TrEMBL record, chain A:
Domain DUF112: 17-438
Keywords: Membrane, Transmembrane, Transmembrane helix
Classification via InterPro entries: DUF112_TM (IPR002823)
Species in which this protein is naturally found: Stappia indica
Protein name, per record: C4-dicarboxylate ABC transporter permease
TM regions (residue ranges): 7-33, 39-65, 72-92, 112-132, 144-161, 167-184, 196-213, 257-278, 317-340, 352-376, 388-406, 469-489
Taxonomic classification: Bacteria, Pseudomonadati, Pseudomonadota, Alphaproteobacteria, Hyphomicrobiales
Coiled coil: none
Automatic annotation (TrEMBL), chain B:
Keywords of the record: Membrane, Transmembrane, Transmembrane helix
Segments crossing the lipid bilayer: 33-54, 75-99, 111-132
Residues annotated as domain DUF1468: 8-137
Protein name stated in the entry: Tripartite tricarboxylate transporter TctB family protein
InterPro entries with a match to the protein in the record: DUF1468
Length: 502, 148
C-alpha cells in the first residue's frame, strides 16, 4: 500500500487535479450527447496526451470514463435515449420516473449511484490489483501466451451475439498486429514496400477510425436538424427524503459487487453489469412488479452497476496487460504512448503512476457528485439543444486533427478513414469491433511469448502445457471457445426433442 | 438479405486469410509461421461463416444503410475534406467542411452554422496551435502571402 501513499502527493498537484475536474465535466457532457460514447471520447483524447505528463493524461482518461458513464443517464432518464450502451437499463425506470414528473429525483439517484459504484470499483482496483500483480511475477512466456489467448478467446466469444464472428474479428486483429518489422527476426511483414508500414499500423489511428468514425455517418443518417426544446429539459432540484438513502443502501452494495465482478471478467462490459444489477434488484425487491414503472431502485441498480464496472475492468489490464474491454485497451494504449509496458513489472517500475491512476479513478468518481448535481445536470441537458447535424463535421475535424498530430503524416488520415469505413460495415454485419483492437494489442505479446517459450523448450510445443499454471490457462481457453459450441449443440438437441414430443 | 451479406462477409474474410497465409509463405522461419497460422485460421472462420449462411433456413432482413443519400453525402464530404487538408491547409479545409456539410444534410440556418463553425474552429486553434503548439498542414493563403 506504500505505493498508493506515495502516489497521493503526485496526484494532488495542480495538473492532475485540474485535468480530473475538466475531464469529468467533459465526460458528463459527452455521455449526455446521444451518439457520442466514452470510447470515442477517449480515443479522440489519446493523441492529445502525447505531450502531457502521464499522470495528467491518465487523469483525463479516468475523468472522461467515469463522467461519461454517469452522463449517459441524463438522456436515458429525460428522453429514453441511452447516452451510452451502459445506460440502456437506466431507461427502464428512469424515463417512467421522468414521465411522472420525477426527472430531477431520478437524475439525483443516478448521480449518487454512479459515484458510489465508481468509488467501490476504485477501492477494489486498489486492493485486488496489487495482489494479482504479485502473483503474476511467477509467470513465464508460456503463461503469458495462454493469458493472451484466454483474453482473446473470452473477448471474442463474449462480446457481441455471434461467437464465430467474434473469434474471426480477434484473429483479424492478431493478423493486423503482425504488420511491420518482426521484433525477433527483423523481417518486414505485410509492409508492401511502404516505409510508413515498417513500424506497424498505429494502434491509436486504427482505434480512432474503428470506434470514433462509425458514429459520424450514423449521426448524418439520423439528420437531427432541431435538437431538443427547452421545455423538454426543464428540471428542478429535489432533496432526498428521510430514509430514502437508507432504502437504497442494499441496492448500492449488491450492484457494486456485481459491477466489480463483471468488470474483472474480460469481454463483459458496463451494459452487462447494469442489466445484471437491475435484475438482481428486481429479484430482491418485495414489489418486483413496480420495476419498469418508475421504481427508483431500478435507476440506482443500473447506474451503480455500470459505474462499478469501470475501475474493476482495469484490474486485468494493469496487472496482466490484458484489457478486458475497449476502454481498458485505450488505457493500455495511453500507457504505451508514454513508453510504459503494462503488466506486473509496471507496479515495480512505475508504482507512483499505477497508484496515481487508481487514486484518480477514485477521485473522479467522487467528483461526479460535485459536477453532476441538479444545477450542473440542467446545464448538461442544455447541450442536447444543439442540432445533431452540426456535430457531424465537428467530430470529423476533431478526429482529423487528433490523428494528424500523432505522427504528422497525412497517410494516417486515410488509414483512419479506411478503418472507419470497415468499422461501420462490420458493425452493421454483426462483427464486434472490440476483439480487433484487443487482437492488435495482444498479438505482439502473444507472438513474442510463444516464440520465447518455444526457444526455451528448444522447439517442443508440449512444453507450453506442462507447467501447472499454463495447463490450467490452456484448459480455460479451450473451455471458453467450446462453451458456445456446446450451448448451440444443447439448444439444437432440446429443440429436436421438443419437436419429437410434439 | 442477412444470408447473402454473411456469404459475402465470409468470402471476404476467407480470401483475406488465404492471401495473408500465402504472403506469409515468403517469410523465413518462425516469423512466417505465426502469420501463416493466423491466415489459415482466419480463412477457416470465414469459411465457417459462409457455410453457416449457406445452410441457414432463415433470411432475415438486415439494412446496412438507413438513409443512403445522407451517408453518401457525409462520406463524400469526409473524403474531399481529407484530400483538401494538405493543399488548402488544415483550418481552411475545416472551415469549409463545417460550413458546407450541414446545409448538404438539410440544415438551413446559415448564421447558426457559421457561429458554431467559428466557435469550434477557434477552440481547436486555441487547443492545438496556441496551447499545444502542434504543427498542422499550413494554410494556402498564408503560404502564398509569405512566398510573395
Amino acid at each position: 500500500m506504500d505505493f498508493l501513499l506515495n502516489a497521493v502527493s503526485a496526484v494532488m498537484a495542480t495538473g492532475p487535479l485540474v485535468a480530473m475536474l475538466g475531464a469529468t465535466l467533459l465526460g458528463v457532457l459527452i455521455g449526455a450527447l446521444p451518439g457520442l460514447n466514452p470510447v470515442m471520447a477517449i480515443a479522440l483524447l489519446l493523441p492529445l496526451t502525447y505531450s502531457m505528463d502521464p499522470l495528467v493524461a491518465l487523469a483525463m482518461v479516468a475523468g472522461i470514463y467515469n463522467g461519461s458513464m454517469y452522463g449517459g443517464a441524463i438522456p436515458a432518464i429525460l428522453l429514453r435515449i441511452p447516452g451510452t450502451p451502459a445506460s440502456i437499463a437506466t431507461t427502464f425506470d428512469g424515463f417512467p420516473m421522468a414521465e411522472k414528473g420525477e426527472a430531477a429525483k431520478a437524475l439525483k439517484i443516478a448521480c449518487w449511484s454512479s459515484a458510489i459504484g465508481g468509488i467501490a470499483s476504485a477501492l477494489a482496483l486498489m486492493t485486488v490489483g496489487p495482489l494479482l500483480a504479485r502473483a503474476t511475477l511467477h509467470f513465464g512466456p508460456a503463461e503469458y501466451f495462454w493469458i493472451a489467448m484466454f483474453g482473446m478467446a473470452s473477448v471474442g466469444v463474449m462480446v457481441g451475439s455471434d461467437p464465430v464472428k467474434g473469434v474471426m474479428a480477434a484473429v483479424l486483429g492478431l493478423l493486423l498486429g503482425t504488420v511491420g518489422i518482426d521484433q525477433l527476426s527483423g523481417q518486414a511483414r505485410y509492409t508492401f514496400d511502404q516505409p510508413w508500414l515498417l513500424g506497424g499500423l498505429d494502434l491509436v489511428v486504427v482505434l480512432v477510425g474503428l470506434y470514433a468514425l462509425p458514429p459520424v455517418p450514423q449521426l448524418a443518417e439520423k439528420c437531427d436538424l432541431k435538437g431538443l426544446s427547452a421545455a423538454q429539459l426543464r428540471l428542478a432540484s429535489v432533496p432526498f427524503r428521510k430514509g430514502e438513502v437508507k432504502g437504497l443502501l442494499p441496492t448500492w452494495g449488491r450492484s457494486s459487487l456485481i459491477g466489480i465482478f463483471v468488470g474483472i471478467l474480460p469481454g463483459a462490459g458496463g451494459n452487462i453489469a447494469a442489466f445484471l444489477s437491475y435484475n438482481a434488484a428486481k429479484n430482491a425487491s418485495s414489489e418486483p412488479e413496480s420495476f419498469g414503472k418508475g421504481n427508483p431502485q431500478g435507476v440506482a441498480a443500473a447506474e451503480c452497476g455500470n459505474n462499478a464496472d469501470n475501475a474493476a475492468s482495469m484490474i486485468p489490464a494493469l496487472t496482466l496487460g490484458i484489457p478486458g474491454n475497449v476502454v481498458a485497451a485505450l488505457v493500455l494504449s495511453a500507457l504505451m504512448i508514454h513508453g510504459l509496458q503494462p503488466g506486473p513489472q509496471l507496479f515495480h517500475q512505475n508504482p507512483v503512476l499505477v497508484g496515481g491512476f487508481m487514486i484518480e479513478m477514485l477521485l473522479t468518481s467522487v467528483l461526479i457528485l460535485l459536477v453532476g448535481g441538479a444545477a450542473a445536470t440542467r446545464i448538461f441537458a442544455q447541450i442536447q439543444r444543439l442540432p445533431g447535424v452540426l456535430l457531424v463535421p465537428s467530430i470529423l475535424v476533431l478526429m482529423c486533427v487528433g490523428v494528424y498530430v500523432i505522427n504528422g503524416r497525412p497517410v494516417d488520415l486515410w488509414v483512419m478513414l479506411a478503418a472507419g469505413a470497415a468499422g461501420y460495415l462490420l458493425e452493421k454485419l454483426n462483427v464486434p469491433l472490440a476483439p480487433i483492437i484487443l487482437g492488435m494489442i495482444l498479438g505482439p505479446m502473444a507472438e513474442q511469448s510463444v516464440r520465447r517459450a518455444l526457444l526455451i523448450s528448444r522447439g517442443d510445443p508440449v512444453e507450453l502445457l506442462t507447467r501447472p499454471i499454463s495447463a490450467v490457462l490452456a484448459a480455460a481457453t479451450l473451455a471458453m471457445i467450446l462453451w458456445p459450441v456446446m450451448k448451440a449443440l444443447k439448444r439444437r438437441r432440446d429443440k429436436k426433442m421438443s419437436e419429437n414430443n410434439a | 438479405m442477412e444470408r447473402s451479406q454473411d456469404l459475402a462477409l465470409g468470402l471476404l474474410f476467407a480470401g483475406l486469410g488465404l492471401a495473408a497465409a500465402w504472403q506469409a509463405g515468403s517469410y523465413q522461419g518462425a516469423g512466417g509461421t505465426y502469420p501463416m497460422v493466423l491466415g489459415v485460421v482466419l480463412a477457416l472462420c470465414g469459411a465457417l461463416v459462409m457455410l453457416r449462411a449457406a445452410r441457414s433456413k432463415t433470411d432475415a432482413p438486415r439494412r446496412l444503410v438507413d438513409v443512403p443519400a445522407n451517408l453518401v453525402k457525409a462520406l463524400a464530404a469526409g473524403v474531399i475534406y481529407v484530400a483538401l487538408i494538405l493543399p488548402l491547409g488544415f483550418y481552411t479545409a475545416s472551415v469549409l467542411l463545417m460550413l458546407a456539410l450541414p446545409p448538404m444534410l438539410g440544415f438551413r440556418r446559415p448564421l447558426y452554422t457559421a457561429i458554431v463553425a467559428a466557435s469550434f474552429i477557434a477552440l481547436v486553434w486555441i487547443v492545438f496551435s496556441l496551447v499545444l503548439n502542434k504543427p498542422l498542414p499550413a494554410e494556402l493563403w498564408a503560404a502564398s502571402r509569405l512566398g510573395g
